[in-house]
Design a protein that fits this description.
Layout: E1 3-8, E2 12-19, E3 26-28, E4 35-40, H1 45-54, H2 56-71, E5 88-94, E6 100-104, E7 107-113, H3 121-154, E8 161-164, E9 171-173, E10 179-182, H4 190-202, H5 211-220, H6 224-230
Helix pairs in contact: 3-4
């Protein structure tokens, strides 16, 4: 994969990445990340830059929205009501000098020392890492088994299933038939988890997003593109 970085005043660093799967030039603006431009193999970086220059006002508009999100992060504290599909978060102060946690019995028990404020970035960082670990446990329990069920039901074959802390996409399928899923799938409703599993299984047959690919997915799911748009209501991460 080849890539290129350019600087544009008022925008910052823009990362251009060539992709074999891309059919069109795609601009992605996310919180806490540089602008990313996905470029099809047959399109030059110069052409992609021209497209970006035509979309600068659109990019600035979305960056403004993302900056608002960045300034208003969720701060976890003792009164926060937060649950994954199988675990409930409980935050408590402790006499210990260390930040610790234990995941068991349907609970994420997180303890932080009295000398720290719960809003301290080290505490907030630790809370998010522990939640991600709970999500990883749940994902490993649910996703591989569900992939197997759906693959058998719809006649797909695949190689291996991997669960990773991916924050750039929900999942992917390699040319070898390996399926990679973000542990953050477990934050979605079960019907959307199933959709994303089928989305990647369909890539074992069609390794792109061509009309043939959507035909395969529509045949088993129905109106797949509408469901794909529904996913845009959800962001990857905590």
């Amino acid at each position: 994969m080849s890539y290129k970085h350019i600087q544009i005043g008022g925008i910052g660093t823009i990362r251009f990445v060539k992709s074999e799967r891309a059919k069109h030039i795609n601009i992605t603006v996310k919180s806490f990340q540089n602008v990313k431009v996905t470029v099809p193999i047959g399109v030059s970086f110069a052409e992609a830059e021209r497209v970006v220059n035509d979309k600068l006002s659109w990019i600035r508009k979305h960056q403004a929205r993302m900056r608002k999100v960045e300034k208003e992060p969720l701060i976890f504290n003792e009164s926060t009501e937060f649950s994954t599909k199988q675990h409930r978060l409980i935050i408590s102060k402790t006499n210990s000098d260390k930040i610790t946690a234990k995941i068991s019995g349907g609970k994420i028990n997180m303890f932080y020392p009295k000398h720290l404020d719960v809003g301290h970035k080290s505490v907030q960082y630790f809370i998010r890492r522990v939640i991600e670990e709970a999500l990883r446990m749940e994902a490993k329990q649910h996703i591989p088994a569900r992939v197997k069920e759906l693959a058998i039901k719809y006649g797909f074959t695949y190689n291996k299933v991997f669960i990773k802390n991916i924050k750039s996409r929900w999942g992917s399928c390699s040319k070898k038939g390996n399926l990679n899923f973000s542990l953050h799938l477990m934050c979605l409703p079960y019907e959307l988890i199933d959709y994303l599993i089928l989305h990647e299984l369909a890539h074992t047959v069609e390794h792109n997003h061509s009309k043939k690919y959507w035909a395969v997915l529509d045949n088993i799911y129905g109106n797949a593109k509408a469901v794909d748009k529904k996913l845009k209501q959800y962001r990857i991460g905590i």
